[in-house]
Automatic annotation (TrEMBL), chain A:
Organism in which the protein naturally occurs: Pseudomonas fontis
Lineage: Bacteria, Pseudomonadati, Pseudomonadota, Gammaproteobacteria, Pseudomonadales
Domain Solute-binding protein family: start-end pairs: 104-476
PROSITE patterns cross-referenced by the UniProt entry: PROKAR_LIPOPROTEIN
Annotated localization: Cell envelope
Record SUPFAM superfamilies: Periplasmic binding protein-like II (SSF53850)
Name of the protein this chain belongs to: ABC transporter substrate-binding protein
CDD domains: PBP2_NikA_DppA_OppA_like_15
Signal peptide from the UniProt entry: 1-20
Pfam families membership: SBP_bac_5 (PF00496)
From TrEMBL, chain B:
Localization annotation: Cell membrane
Annotated signal sequence range: none
Record's keyword terms, sorted: Cell membrane, Membrane, Transmembrane, Transmembrane helix, Transport
Keyword Plastid: no
Originating species: Pseudomonas fontis
Listed PANTHER family: OLIGOPEPTIDE TRANSPORT SYSTEM PERMEASE PROTEIN APPC, PEPTIDE ABC TRANSPORTER PERMEASE PROTEIN
Topology of this chain in the membrane: Multi-pass membrane protein
Pfam families: BPD_transp_1
CDD domains attached to this UniProt entry: TM_PBP2 (cd06261)
Top-level lineage group: Bacteria
Protein name stated in the entry: ABC transporter permease
Transmembrane regions: 31-52, 95-120, 140-164, 212-238, 258-280
Length: 570, 292
């Protein structure tokens, strides 16, 4: 019995230690969200300095970074993984780059002309760019890359959809490329600025496309040295790199000699290694530790919002019971407590969101931000109007003897923790809606997602750098077909929305674009194909010794070409 | 000799048992506490409402991550649910899992053990090789394989953990059977002309199984841990069902700022397993005659 009481004493001691070691509990929500940027009139703006190198840095050093998950392939054309946003900039370059206002500026393309009918784009390319295997970057390289993106064998869930209007290209001369589009497509240049549409070595695409996944060859500021799946990767500086986007103000090679990336799924460990100086930078700073990071004088915390579509709590299948009725969809949207969910997922770091475009997106119109505001009484009235007035003994609503119920498909991930699903379930129970949670492995979720085989599916974010993200998620042309992976998985078909989004693709005039996107945003809060819940945040944290951190204009993720280490500060 | 290792099949007189219990009360408060705790667990499993009021599924995001205070004695979790309520309601699945999985393991293990111990030599060889193969896998891995085949959920977890514990019981029962079947009283029964089936049912099985039953008591604790480990790894019941392992799995992400999400379920698992094991060991000692 002696060992039992010893155990008991140990347990007591452990509990006491835990109690003593713990900092005061996290404060309750209510304080202002500490994100970067300035909010005014419902929109969000960032300082131009955030995107431009202030002063030249000191070369040398190794940056140790951590991230939560692995993309499992470096073929950025073949995936939609969020890490590509910053990973793509390490290994590759794009044709164009956005400036801090979202306008297009040169990168590998020096300049471009758009034909009056908006269907022909002529790119004049830089002539001094090479890939790390010695291949030249030229018009043929662009053509081969665009073909690779839309090749069915690539199985691209993102890049292919973004260049869907692209018909074919013509090599005018070595450094002039002409792209022909099926119809006018004004976001074409914007999407070409995104990391998922980076330029890969044409020789590798033609001769050994399978090797891109593990040994990618790009023209970017770093070269992959070594990669172990689900563990990490090492990148070394590319000698002779001299073609960073002019918007960044960076000239010449990257400052850092090496980047060591570790994949660390446990948020607690990403935080504690940073705190213990075992890592310098985390690309997925845990929101629950943000307060501690901000309080630590050795660390910096940055929170930035991705453009286009905010984080959705769930997406409805509008063809299935009970979500074929827009009143039920609206009731659900109004019954979900966004501030509560923003608190449990973001610990005061996330901005709650009720409309369909991020506040820093071009043509965002804040007029509809409260249209789907949290209002349980309104939700109850909507369901009463929709005929769900009776209740069963458990308190759930009934119509013609049928219970108001649906199933929410989720998979456990850092981006969408199960607690969000549980919070939704609890919120909906309060209006008499029975939401079952079905937890499935990612492979099954993906399969059922693209087959639209669900009532409601857990959200996530779909980020792009233009308001055309609405077309990608909600236009009827974005519904999957046997040969096309579309992101309108809820199968919304709304003529007015389709018309506005299509018209926006044809327009170049800012006033016309603003008008069409306003109609689209209004139509979305009316049709409620999904429930936005908070802005899609990029949370990064790094040690003070890390200098020159600027952000990508398209993705608002860190841009490592200009990052350097202040060795003396270590 | 056999009598000593196997324990005394005859029951002790009642007065002596009382006396022993009296002495235990005086000398070993640890054991008493363990027994009380198990009693509490039984109440929680059968009638959680007697111990605590409140709905373990009552989530309110705005109440999330509250530190222990006078309203929520053990704090609230990541969905603003009361941790104490959830802990109490999680007792039933945990105990059920421990008991049912042990029962399954014991039942199948006993059948295997008896077959091997009493059957012909080739059957003994076949069964024991199978058991050897199963033993080559760690318990948890075996359970994971079973769950991968049958899918998630409490019922499947019970089967998985149960099957994973079969090999151990099979070996134990076989060893005991081999000892018992040559014992004097078995020989005597056979000589008296009892049929083989009757000898097995009346003499071999009861005497072979008793020490196994005692070890099984200790095994319940181990199986509760295995069940918690499985749900920690994400193979338990899906949310929002309260489960100790699942509560730990979610809570560890918030260890830096909300320790109470992890501390209480961890304490509950530890105390449960320690209590059950303590009682099991006590039974074992008495059976081996090391205690009066």
């Amino acid at each position: 019995m002696n060992h039992l009481s010893r155990l008991a004493r140990l347990a007591l001691l452990g509990a006491a230690l835990l109690l003593a070691a713990c900092k005061p509990p996290a404060s309750v929500q209510g304080a202002a969200v500490q994100a970067d940027g300035a909010q005014a009139d419902g929109t969000l703006r960032y300082a131009a300095n955030d995107y431009r190198e202030a002063a030249p840095g000191r070369p040398g050093g190794t940056l140790r970074m951590s991230t939560a998950s692995d993309t499992t392939t470096f073929d950025v054309h073949s995936i939609s993984h969020g890490n590509v946003q910053w990973l793509g900039r390490i290994l590759f370059d794009c044709l164009v780059y956005q400036d801090e206002r979202g306008n297009i500026s040169p990168w590998l393309a020096k300049s471009w002309d758009i034909s009056p009918d908006g269907k022909t784009y002529t790119f004049h390319l830089r002539d001094d760019v090479t890939f790390s295997d010695g291949e030249k970057f030229n018009a043929r390289a662009v053509q081969i890359n665009l073909e690779h993106m839309r090749d069915p064998a690539t199985k691209s869930p993102l890049a292919a959809a973004y260049i869907a209007p692209y018909v074919d290209g013509r090599v005018v001369d070595e450094y002039t490329f002409e792209a022909h589009l099926r119809e006018p497509y004004s976001p074409f240049l914007d999407v070409l600025a995104q990391s998922w549409l980076s330029m890969i070595s044409p020789r590798q695409i033609l001769e050994a496309p399978k090797t891109i996944a593990q040994q990618p060859i790009g023209s970017g500021p770093f070269v992959l040295e070594q990669y172990t799946r689900d563990q990490g990767a090492t990148f070394v500086k590319r000698q002779g790199y001299n073609w960073a986007p002019s918007v960044t103000g960076h000239v010449g090679e990257a400052y850092l000699d090496r980047l060591e990336l570790s994949i660390v799924p446990e948020p607690m460990i990403r935080f504690s290694t940073l705190e213990a100086r075992q890592s310098d930078f985390t690309l997925d700073a845990p929101a629950q530790n943000a307060q501690a990071i901000r309080a630590n004088p050795d660390l910096q915390m940055r929170s930035r919002v991705r453009k286009a579509n905010p984080f959705r709590s769930l997406t409805f299948n509008v063809e299935r019971f009970p979500f074929e009725d827009v009143r039920v969809r609206r009731a659900v949207a109004r019954a979900i407590d966004r501030e509560g969910i923003a608190w449990i997922a973001g610990f005061g770091e996330f901005l709650p969101k009720g409309d369909f475009l991020a506040a820093n997106t071009g043509y965002y119109d804040p007029a509809f931000k409260d249209a789907l505001g949290y209002d349980v009484d309104a939700a109850n009235r909507l369901l009463d109007e929709a005929g769900w007035a009776q209740r069963d003994p458990q308190g759930y609503r009934l119509k013609d003897g049928k219970r108001l119920a649906a199933q929410l498909l989720i998979y456990e991930s850092g981006v969408f923790p199960g607690s969000i699903a549980v919070a939704i379930q609890a919120d909906l129970k309060k209006i008499g809606f029975a939401m079952d949670i079905d937890l499935l492995p990612l492979a099954q979720i993906t399969e059922r997602r693209y087959a639209s085989n669900f009532d409601a599916i857990a959200g996530g974010y779909w980020h792009t750098n233009t308001p055309d993200g609405l077309f990608i998620l909600y236009h009827s042309q974005s519904i999957s077909t046997p040969t096309f992976i579309g992101q309108n998985v809820g199968r919304l078909r709304d003529a007015a929305l389709d018309q506005a989004l299509s018209a926006a693709r044809q327009a170049h005039d800012p006033a016309e674009l603003a008008r069409q996107y306003r109609i689209a945003q209004q139509r979305l809060v009316e049709t409620v194909p999904a429930v936005p819940v908070f802005e899609s945040h990029v949370l990064v944290a790094y040690r003070n010794a890390v200098k020159g951190v600027i952000f990508d204009t398209s993705h608002n993720t860190p841009f490592f070409t200009s990052v350097w280490l202040d060795q003396e500060a270590q | 000799m056999t009598e000593l290792t196997l324990g005394n099949p005859s029951l002790k007189p009642g007065s002596e048992t009382l006396f022993v219990a009296h002495r235990a009360w005086q000398l070993r408060p640890g054991l008493t506490l363990a027994a009380l705790f198990v009693l509490l667990l039984l109440v929680a499993a059968l009638q959680p409402g007697w111990l605590i009021s409140g709905d373990p599924l009552d989530a309110n995001a705005r109440q999330a991550f509250r530190a222990p205070d006078s309203v929520h004695w053990l704090g609230t979790d990541e969905n603003g649910r009361d941790i104490l309520v959830r802990l109490v309601h999680a007792v039933r699945p945990s105990l059920l899992l421990g008991l049912a999985a042990t029962a399954i393991g014991l039942l199948i293990g006993t059948v295997f053990g008896l077959l091997a111990g009493l059957g012909p030599r080739w059957l003994d060889g076949a069964v024991m090789r199978l058991v050897d193969v199963l033993l080559a896998f760690p318990d948890l891995l075996l359970a994971l394989v079973v769950i991968t085949f049958f899918g998630q959920g409490l019922f499947n977890t019970i089967i998985a953990v149960g099957i994973a514990s079969v090999p151990r019981y099979a070996r134990l029962v076989r060893a005991q059977t081999l000892v018992v079947r040559n014992a004097g009283y078995v020989e005597a029964a056979t000589t008296l002309g009892l049929r083989r089936r009757a000898v097995i049912a009346r003499h071999v099985l009861p005497n072979a199984i008793k020490p196994v039953l005692i070890l099984a008591t200790i095994g319940i604790g181990g199986n509760i841990i295995a069940g918690a480990a499985l749900s920690f790894l994400g193979f338990g019941a899906p949310p929002p069902v309260p489960e100790w392992g699942g509560m730990l799995a979610i809570g560890r992400n918030y260890l830096g700022n909300a320790w109470w999400l992890v501390a209480w379920p961890a304490l509950a698992i530890t105390l449960t397993v320690v209590s059950i094991t303590a009682i099991g060991r006590e039974l074992l000692r008495r059976n081996e005659g090391k205690r009066p």
